[in-house]
Design brief:
The complex is a heterodimer. Chain A is mostly helical. Chain A is built from eleven helices and no strands. Helix content of chain A is about 80%, strand content about 0%. The longest helix of chain B has 18 residues. The chains are: A mainly alpha, B alpha/beta.
Chain lengths: ~270, ~300
């Protein structure tokens, strides 16, 4: 029993190591504040003003601004996950991390928890701007829908962030930009500012395989836009769990490959 | 009992398009290190020292051969190895915004330390490595010497049974190097830690290591104590003579003289054995009417052994 408790304690401590490091970095670096306030603020204001210019109904405004929130929350959260590897790449300390007896879930979940916290700050800021400036009701879809939507966004961010870590460990610093580009691409395919029905047929097929498509459809249903899917949240969560597992596997494979190729050492020189 | 047992390790790095360019880093390196030893790994740049250490530290996978650390296979049981091992390198680097105690706490947590045990360990190491006055300084603002000391402290965070030091005193001031060497010796004395160190400083290897291995081209060429290596390589002893009126022309033709060199007023005779040749040379010089004003005999330096083996 005590060894089980020790084991669980060790798991939590290792996970907390990554969370704590991300917290320190977020506190000390001004560009983290930009990620948290500037870009989400700019996105909310510019999209909100666009909805005014186009004289959109409150319902249509909600459709657009839900997309804006999802993109920003996922972006910030997945960056935190990617930082678990990117900090070590930028500081050339990669090998020390993998010299310790850690597993992928320690670095992924530890940094993800901070990402969730930062994503919630982004959400709160955007909700405040949206409500004050554009009269957007963020809980208009229902509290349960909103919470499921946010959880879906954060789990999507976990999967994307871990995939980005795998890409960086496969291709080195050349793949760094994927940390910023990946989410934009995924969300574009998922119908961020438009229904997936406007996408060309083959793109719509791809979007059917993206979890955030279902989370957007689920929350938008609460604003009166009928979902094209029968159980959007159930399908979304099933898909996102599958992607989290796949991302975990991809990162494990990338670590093994970088240990074989010597990239893990090159990233520490 | 062996702390490290590596046999016939092979490693080739691939680069370029489709990995067509291949560089063999290890070509059958074999190494046994007993527990509690300080083991020096010497060799020219690109000899395979860091590759060998990285395989043993489980951050690089070998292409062939086998290796175990404290009885655990480095490929099949990397987590068991990692719990009992740590590594510091001369070019170590950590996340730029963290302060020394935060760096140590981060890595301490990765080894499962928490609460008062973690705080106590971090404080011990801060004190031991004299980082206290720099507690509030972020990593990027530390001097090279302080960074090196922090790297050394980080390598001790989990009280490893096996410690790898990859050029731990590279580019450091002599006083910092001396302190790090003292810490290395103390670690073995106090905890019986097995230490493998790579270095380019022969004096460091000679001072610290029980056993030294020379690696070149991915193979261990020679292994033994510093004295054994000097004897084994047979590069000869040097007899330095100050002669009046100078060395006779046919001095070089005497038996046992391998090489003759003039250094200012001194003539250096490299001989196969100074015990045997010194009396013969002095007798012959006396017969030639040459006055010997000064005579010194010295054994070859480890550096000369290194140069000979690296040739």
């Amino acid at each position: 029993m005590s060894s089980l408790a020790e084991g669980l304690g060790g798991e939590m401590v290792r996970t907390w190591a990554f969370a704590h490091r991300n917290i320190i970095m977020a506190r000390r670096n001004v560009f983290f504040l930009f990620e948290l306030t500037f870009w989400p603020g700019v996105a909310m204001l510019s999209h909100g003003l666009l909805t005014r210019f186009l004289h959109l109904t409150p319902q249509m405004t909600a459709f657009i601004l839900v997309g804006t929130v999802s993109l920003s929350a996922i972006q910030v959260c997945q960056l935190d996950v990617a930082y678990a590897v990117l900090f070590d790449i930028w500081s050339k300390s990669m090998k020390h991390q993998f010299l310790a007896p850690i597993r992928i879930h320690h670095l992924a979940i530890g940094s993800w928890l901070v990402g969730v916290a930062r994503g919630l700050v982004v959400f709160a800021l955007m909700a405040w701007i949206g409500t004050r400036a554009f009269g957007f009701d963020f809980v208009g879809a229902g509290l349960a829908n909103l919470l499921l939507f946010l959880l879906g966004c954060f789990l999507t961010a976990l999967a994307v962030g871990v995939f980005v870590c795998a890409l960086v460990l496969l291709f080195g610093t050349r793949a760094e930009t994927s940390a910023w580009a990946a989410v934009n691409f995924v969300v574009m395919l998922a119908g961020v500012y438009y229904p997936v029905s406007v996408l060309p047929g083959w793109v719509a097929t791809i979007s059917a395989g993206i979890p955030i498509t279902y989370f957007l459809a689920g929350v938008r249903a609460g604003y009166g836009f009928p979902s094209p899917f029968a159980h959007p949240f159930v399908t979304g969560f099933a898909l996102v769990f599958l992607y989290v597992v796949l991302a975990h596997w991809a990162l494990a494979a990338a670590i093994t490959r970088s240990r074989r190729s010597g990239l893990l050492l090159k990233l520490s020189e | 009992m062996l702390a490290v047992d590596a046999r016939d390790l092979l490693k080739t790095f691939r680069s370029g398009w489709f990995g067509r360019r291949r560089t063999a880093a290890l070509r059958g390196a074999t190494l046994q290190v007993p527990r509690g030893a300080i083991f020096g790994l010497l060799g020219p740049n690109g000899a395979g020292k860091t590759t060998l250490l990285s395989i043993l530290a489980t951050v690089l996978l070998p292409d062939g051969g086998s290796a175990s650390v404290l009885g655990h296979d480095v490929v099949r049981e990397p987590f068991a190895v990692r719990r009992r091992l740590n590594m510091a390198s001369g070019n170590a680097s950590f996340v730029w915004s963290l302060r020394p105690a935060e760096v140590l706490a981060f890595y301490g947590r990765l080894y499962g330390l928490s609460g008062s045990r973690l705080r106590q360990r971090v404080e011990e190491l801060i004190e031991r490595c004299e980082l206290g006055p720099h507690r509030k300084t972020e990593y990027n603002e530390l001097s090279t010497g302080l960074k090196q000391r922090l790297a050394f402290a980080k390598a001790l965070i989990n009280e490893p049974d096996v410690l790898f030091l990859d050029e731990p005193t590279l580019g450091l001031d002599p006083d910092v190097s001396i302190r790090i060497r003292a810490q290395v010796a103390e670690l073995r004395r106090e905890r019986g830690t097995t230490i493998i160190l790579t270095t380019h400083y022969m004096r460091e290897a000679e001072e610290l290591c029980d056993t030294i291995a020379f690696i070149k081209g991915g193979r261990i060429l020679a292994q033994g104590s510093a004295d054994e290596l000097k004897r084994r390589v047979r590069i000869g002893d040097v007899i330095a003579l100050r002669l009046d009126p100078g060395p006779p022309e046919n001095l070089e033709e005497l038996p046992g003289i391998l090489h003759l060199a003039a250094r200012g007023e001194t003539t250096e005779c490299t001989v196969d054995s100074s015990d045997k040749r010194l009396p013969e040379i002095l007798r012959w010089l006396h017969e030639q009417g040459v006055l010997v004003r000064d005579c010194q005999v010295r054994e070859p330096e480890l550096e000369e052994v290194f140069v000979e083996l690296a040739r």
